[in-house]
Amino acid sequence: MAKQVIVIGGGPAGLMAAGQAASMGAEVLLLEKMDWPGKKLKITGKGRCNITNIAEIEDFVAHFGSNGRFLRGAFYRFFSDDLLALLADLGVKTVTERGGRVFPASEEAGDVVDALVGWVRGLGVEIRTKTRVKRLLVEDGRVTAIQTTDKTYRTDAVIVATGGMSYPGTGSTGDGYYLAEGVGHGIVPARPALVPLKTAGDVAKELQGLSLRNVNVTLYVDGKKQTEEFGEMLFTHYGVSGPVILTMSKQVVDAVLRKQSVSLSIDLKPALDEKKLDARLLRDFDQKGKQHFQRILKDLLPQSLIPVCSRLVEISPDKPGHQITSEERGRLRGWLKDFRLEVTGFQPIAQAIVTAGGVDIREIDPRTMASRLVEGLYFAGEVIDIDADTGGYNLQAAFSTGWLAGRSAAGWEG
């Protein structure tokens, strides 16, 4: 008799888990509370779907921080090359872009969703939408059934793949945390990761829409340097966002929650050290001495940043270059290498790309994704306390843990 497996959640982890369990001969029921599976997957990568990354496994693991080691086994069993081969078999062509990021060639996330949904249905998976699971039923330490708002389903195994709490409009509202807690699992508090930051004052608002490329941003917590990132950032009406900001945002969130002081130092000229930058400024002020300060800055800074610079370094925008003193030049040089922003908070978890926190990894067997507390219960994807930088890492983790949970729930022993 075929094993009965219920998968809760129709995102990347749930779809992969359902497909793998079915391919192993299980009878699979996939329950999704939204009206269609893969709603969040459709908006990833700004609608383009950053499927994975071609980085090596150990590099992948490093992007997940201290919890990355938990994923090593899942990655060794099912990794980016396996995922891309599966998608190719399903007719999804892919392209690799800067930083090793992989996208569907069509640049349409919906193509990935449609391919995966078609795949699981072709394997005999039954998909029931608009179905919310209220609780897991456990007897003698084993999950035996799940209860929805209107029905109880008996089962041999349950895979919880409900996602985190970001983008709740797509169905990620933390349901998996309550289901896991209800059967005794510990939950690491959910908080936003890969989230835009709020900054003090009106500088960010004044610079709203400005994107800075090839800058170096350093994070300071209580005055001590924590990390630095090189790349692109964006000013918003409330603060800052963009790749480098999102990458360091989890550390910022944790520091803010601990009520520590947080600041960002932006090096606008990372290619020049202090000595070379000073020589550049001397040359500009000498050669363009009759021009006003604001005009000279046009060769150094984006237009919208010039009035902010003039105000913060306290040099009149109309002051001729040849009248600028060595002290003023020093202030400008210092600001160009250390443009400071005080961080006051972060955007709500609903606006985060992924959620930090979730089911404690110490209570999950990394070899199978099985609960160490309840027999027959498995976890996959963002509901687990794993999260990484941007670049396709989080989606690969969802697919890899889904693959392992699906096969394990169906009786596979590796």
Walk me through the topology.
Layout: E1 4-8, H1 12-23, E2 27-31, E3 52-53, H2 57-62, H3 72-77, H4 80-89, E4 94-96, E5 101-104, H5 109-122, E6 126-128, E7 133-139, E8 142-148, E9 152-154, E10 157-160, H6 175-182, E11 187-193, E12 197-199, H7 203-206, E13 211-221, E14 224-235, E15 239-241, H8 243-257, E16 262-267, H9 274-287, H10 293-296, H11 306-313, H12 326-337, E17 339-346, E18 354-359, E19 364-365, E20 370-371, E21 377-379, H13 393-409
Parallel strand pairs: 1-2, 1-10, 2-6, 10-21
Antiparallel strand pairs: 3-5, 4-5, 7-8, 8-9, 11-18, 12-15, 12-17, 13-14, 13-16, 14-15, 16-17, 19-20
Helix pairs in contact: 1-5, 1-13, 9-12
Looking at this protein, list some descriptive labels.
single chain, FAD/NAD(P)-binding domain, Helicase, Ruva Protein, domain 3, 6-stranded antiparallel β-barrel, 5-stranded parallel β-sheet, 26% strand
